[in-house]
């Protein structure tokens, strides 16, 4: 019954189903992706029901205390509705419940009360608790009572309390996600001491202060975590003034976000070799800190990963091994040379996005672009480049965006760019380019939506072929 555009109220639908023997035999009921209204009634009459999906409907109001669940129910999903209030004790009395998803509603109760109401016999069976994107208030209560809990998601709520020093997490926890709240206080290594199974941790976009203090803090200098994380996001948390040493112990990271964490100084030598070992589709983001120094060169390997080092103070030449990434953002640093990065031998089949804007790169742009056959986005703006636009950029047949703004480039726009027929954006404004606007821009670049040549030495009339650009 999924996606059938049902518009009845939920109590009526369930009443119609409960009239015959189906109430005793029904084990799974999927009513998600409809237009069902009303609130959750007592469904305990379905004595064999194990799975109930009600997500993506128009259920509203509070979940009433009389909303009892079948004793055999294992999974209940009511996400993406308009439920209000809190969670009644009756849900916590379901002794077989392993998964509860109330995400994307308008629940507004205090988290401590919600946890208390779920602390009946469900505390022993519940493995997954998803409360994402509600209006839940308060701070984190003791969660260790949920002895089987493996996944907890509290993202995008209104949690704003201080982390208790004696807070305990369930020892079976594998996934902990609390991004986009306003939590305050300090998380120490003590809080994570028993979480040997943790592999997913997201505390980003909070006000958490993870800097060192007199208590055994998260994370003390020589702390060795009991876990191996696959996903770690601490963006906009405070991690202290230096690069966290404990990350050296993490060998399975596929996603790392420690952007805007107040870190400064030189990145330790052990970090860079970890980049070469990244698995496919990994993402590393250490942007918006105050990291300094030069990046060493390492053996080139196509990692199919994404690396963001933007808005730091890295300097010197860009090492060739970074060509092996799929997405590379080195913008807003102090890099001064990328000749060896660009012109090292060997084709690069992986690099699709390259952002070198707002650095200290100067001189002629090297004419070595034929190696980068997959490049779709290239931003060299706000540097000190001079000379002509290299003709080999025309070999980038997948290129969709070329941004050369605010340099000192001279000469005409090369005809070779007419081969870049996938271009959607061409921005060469604020340079010293000469000559007329080429007519081939209109006849060859038919998908162009953004064209900027302002503040150059362009002369002559606009070619009529520009009228062919219907999306411009």
TrEMBL record:
Entry keywords, A to Z: Glycoprotein, Leucine-rich repeat, Membrane, Receptor, Repeat, Signal, Transmembrane, Transmembrane helix
Entry GO CC: membrane
InterPro entries: Leu-rich_rpt, Leu-rich_rpt_4, LRR_dom_sf, RLP23-like
Localization of this protein: Membrane
Pfam families in UniProt: LRR_1, LRR_4, LRR_6
Membrane-related topology note: Single-pass type I membrane protein
Major localization class: membrane
Name of this chain's protein: Uncharacterized protein
Species per Swiss-Prot/TrEMBL record: Canavalia gladiata
Species lineage: Eukaryota, Viridiplantae, Streptophyta, Embryophyta, Tracheophyta
């Amino acid at each position: 019954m999924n996606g059938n555009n049902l518009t009845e109220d939920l109590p009526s639908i369930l009443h119609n189903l409960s009239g015959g023997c189906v109430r005793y035999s029904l084990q799974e009921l999927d009513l998600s992706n409809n237009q069902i209204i009303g609130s959750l009634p007592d469904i305990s009459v379905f004595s064999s029901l194990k799975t109930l999906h009600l997500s993506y409907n128009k259920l509203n109001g509070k979940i009433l205390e009389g909303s009892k669940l079948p004793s055999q129910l294992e999974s209940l999903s009511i996400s993406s509705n308009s439920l209000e209030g809190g969670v009644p004790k009756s849900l916590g009395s379901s002794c077989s419940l392993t998964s509860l998803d109330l995400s994307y509603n308008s629940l507004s109760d205090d988290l401590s009360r919600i946890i208390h109401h779920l602390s009946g016999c469900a505390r022993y069976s519940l493995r997954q608790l998803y409360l994402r994107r509600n209006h839940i208030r308060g701070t984190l209560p003791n969660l260790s009572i949920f002895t089987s809990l493996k996944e907890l998601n509290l993202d995008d709520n209104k949690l704003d309390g201080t982390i208790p020093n004696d807070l305990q997490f369930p020892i079976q926890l594998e996934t902990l996600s609390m991004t986009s709240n306003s939590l305050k206080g300090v998380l120490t290594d003590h809080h994570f001491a028993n979480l040997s199974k943790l592999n997913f941790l997201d505390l980003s976009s909070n006000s958490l202060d993870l800097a060192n203090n007199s208590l055994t803090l998260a994370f003390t200098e020589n702390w060795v975590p009991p876990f191996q994380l696959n996903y770690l996001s601490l963006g906009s948390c405070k991690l202290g003034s230096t690069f966290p040493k404990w990350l050296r112990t993490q060998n399975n990271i596929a996603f790392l976000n420690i952007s805007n964490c107040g870190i400064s100084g030189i990145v330790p030598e052990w970090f860079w070799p970890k980049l070469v070992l990244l698995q496919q589709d990994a993402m590393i983001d250490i942007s918006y800190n105050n990291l300094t120094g030069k990046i060493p060169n390492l053996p080139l390997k196509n990692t199919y990963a994404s690396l963001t080092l933007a808005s730091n103070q890295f300097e010197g030449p860009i090492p060739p091994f970074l060509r092996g990434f799929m997405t590379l953002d080195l913008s807003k640093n102090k890099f001064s040379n990328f000749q060896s990065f660009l012109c090292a031998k060997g084709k690069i089949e992986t690099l699709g996005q390259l952002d070198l804007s707002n650095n200290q790169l100067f001189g002629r742009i090297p004419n070595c672009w034929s190696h980068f056959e997959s490049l779709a986005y290239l931003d060299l703006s706000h540097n000190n480049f001079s000379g002509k636009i290299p003709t080999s950029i025309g070999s980038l047949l997948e290129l969709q965006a070329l941004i050369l703004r605010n340099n000192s480039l001279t000469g005409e726009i090369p005809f070779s760019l007419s081969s870049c027929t996938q271009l959607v954006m061409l921005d060469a404004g604020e340079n010293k380019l000469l000559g007329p606007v080429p007519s081939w821009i209109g006849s060859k670049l038919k998908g162009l939506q953004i064209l900027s040549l302002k503040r150059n030495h362009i002369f002559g009339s606009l070619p009529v072929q520009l009228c062919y650009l219907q999306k411009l």
